[in-house]
Amino acid sequence: MKERLLNIHKLRKEGKTFSQIGKIFGFSKSNASYLYLKAERLEKEKNENPFKFSLSVRTKNCLINYFNDNSIYYDPQRIAETGYAKLSRTKNMGHKSLIELSQKLQEFGYIKNAARWIEKGVKNLREERKK
User: Fold this and answer.
1) If phi over 0 gives left and psi between -120 and 50 gives alpha, with beta otherwise, what is residue 12?
2) CA–CA gap between residue 39 and residue 19 (Å, rounded)
3) CA 15, CA 11: separation in Å to the nearest integer?
4) SS3 letters for the chain?
5) pTM of the shown model
6) What is the rounded CA–CA span in Å between residue 18 and residue 8?
7) First CA to last CA distance, the chain
8) Rg of the Cα trace of the chain?
């Protein structure tokens, strides 16, 4: 779906009319217009908050569930400060999602070392289990 939206957006920027775009993809002129506007919104959102668009759907949903806040993507520092140990208790937030999250937090400069963030969280979990 995203690829089609990107293609529609690209064709329109190249100067194609909505009628021409509709014929290429096999739908009406008005549907082409609607999808172009949807692609514009997506592009704008992507430029405003690249962190949100870099995460998988599962990871995004887990973060929303943990923080009970749809706007958590606008505050990645809060996610980083919460830490691996607390986030790992979230339903469906498995090790792969946490690795993905740590890599993105590092990529965007919210943590210095993803491996160390995970290591510290695992250590905290082990200490809690001993108690």
Assistant:
1) alpha
2) 17
3) 7
4) CHHHHHHHHHHHHCCCCHHHHHHHHCCCHHHHHHHHHHHHHHHHHHHHCHHHHHCCHHHHHHHHHHHCCCCHHHCHHHHHHHHHHHHCCCCCCCHHHHHHHHHHHHHCCCCCCHHHHHHHHHHHHHHHHHC
5) 0.69
6) 9
7) 49
8) 20
Which amino acid is present at 119? Answer: E
Residues 6+ apart with CB under 8 A from 78: 67, 72
pLDDT (tens digit per residue) in 40-88: 888 887 778 888 888 999 999 999 999 998 888 889 999 999 988 899 8
Taking the C-alpha atoms of residue 114 and residue 107, their distance in angstroms, rounded to an integer, is 9
Residue type for 110, please?
Y
pLDDT at residue 127, rounded to an integer? 82
Q: Are 62 and 89 in contact (CB under 8 A)?
A: no
